[in-house]
């Protein structure tokens, strides 16, 4: 059965890998993107998830193209790293507004159709940083930790409607964001990871595919770490 899937921030990195993974399993996949160009092989909708109006319009376009969203992957996120003593209020609130409140906006819009159908999957992309902490990232860590409480509460609200809500918490992944760290910093990071390497985006995508599939029908409110062991114990 072909399902209607929407992935926020799906035009690069982890989001794009998730989009290709779910498309390869036979789903109709749409992605939102804020800047740049949409992937050629996917239905792309420009959307700023800090705007409720943008979110509503994007969902309308996706619904018209491929039907009500049955699988939502809230992946879009930003970083604005700084030490707390130097961090502006705007640096803090902009990250929370995108990463956490953005997930609220898209989830709220998605659950309408899911509740009517009495089925659905919501998967939130958090981070090992939200569980482990990271100096210079109080804003990012707070937003990503917030997704866990949000998901678990929503899982309790929607369970009776056969809608699951889960979290994937990636560790360090080979994307533009980590490439910008430089080789020395990457070497330091690898020393902290029990598996001794940085993940490929497809490894995160396969965990999302599992949670979106039939084999995960009895899993909800879970946090699945895909971090090479970096954050174990949390």
TrEMBL record:
It is an enzyme of class 1 (oxidoreductase). InterPro entries: 3oxo_ACP_reduc, KR_dom, NAD(P)-bd_dom_sf, Sc_DH/Rdtase_CS, SDR_fam. Its EC number is 1.1.1.100. It catalyses: a (3R)-hydroxyacyl-[ACP] + NADP(+) = a 3-oxoacyl-[ACP] + NADPH + H(+). It holds the Pfam family adh_short_C2. NADP(+) binds at residues 9-12, 75, 140-144. Keywords: Fatty acid biosynthesis, Fatty acid metabolism, Lipid biosynthesis, Lipid metabolism, NADP, Oxidoreductase. Pathway: Lipid metabolism; fatty acid biosynthesis. Coiled coil: none annotated. One of its GO terms (molecular function) is 3-oxoacyl-[acyl-carrier-protein] reductase (NADPH) activity. PROSITE patterns: ADH_SHORT (PS00061). Belongs to the short-chain dehydrogenases/reductases (SDR) family. Homotetramer. PANTHER family: 3-OXOACYL-[ACYL-CARRIER-PROTEIN] REDUCTASE FABG, SHORT-CHAIN DEHYDROGENASES/REDUCTASES FAMILY MEMBER. Catalyzes the NADPH-dependent reduction of beta-ketoacyl-ACP substrates to beta-hydroxyacyl-ACP products, the first reductive step in the elongation cycle of fatty acid biosynthesis. This is 3-oxoacyl-[acyl-carrier-protein] reductase. It comes from Actinoallomurus bryophytorum. The lineage of its organism: Bacteria, Bacillati, Actinomycetota, Actinomycetes, Streptosporangiales.
């Amino acid at each position: 059965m072909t399902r209607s899937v929407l992935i926020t921030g799906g035009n690069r990195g982890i989001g794009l890998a998730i989009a290709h993974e779910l498309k390869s399993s036979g789903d109709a996949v749409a992605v939102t993107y804020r800047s740049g160009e949409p992937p050629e092989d996917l239905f792309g909708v420009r959307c700023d998830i800090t705007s409720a109006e943008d979110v509503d319009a994007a969902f309308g376009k996706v619904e018209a193209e491929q039907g009500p969203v049955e699988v939502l992957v809230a992946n879009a996120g930003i970083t604005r790293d700084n030490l707390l003593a130097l961090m502006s209020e705007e640096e803090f609130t902009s990250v929370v507004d995108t990463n956490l409140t953005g997930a609220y906006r898209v989830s709220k819009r998605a659950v309408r159709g899911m509740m009517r159908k009495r089925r659905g999957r919501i998967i939130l992309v958090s981070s090992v940083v939200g569980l482990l902490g990271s100096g210079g990232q109080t804003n990012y860590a707070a937003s990503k930790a917030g997704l866990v409480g949000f998901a678990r509460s929503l899982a309790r609200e929607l369970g009776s409607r056969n809608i699951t809500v889960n979290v994937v918490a990636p560790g360090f992944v080979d994307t533009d964001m980590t490439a910008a760290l430089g080789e020395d910093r990457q070497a330091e990071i690898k020393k902290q990871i029990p598996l001794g390497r940085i993940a490929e985006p497809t490894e995160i995508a396969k965990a999302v595919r599992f949670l979106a599939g039939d084999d995960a029908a009895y899993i909800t409110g879970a946090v699945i770490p895909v971090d090479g062991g970096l954050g174990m114990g949390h």
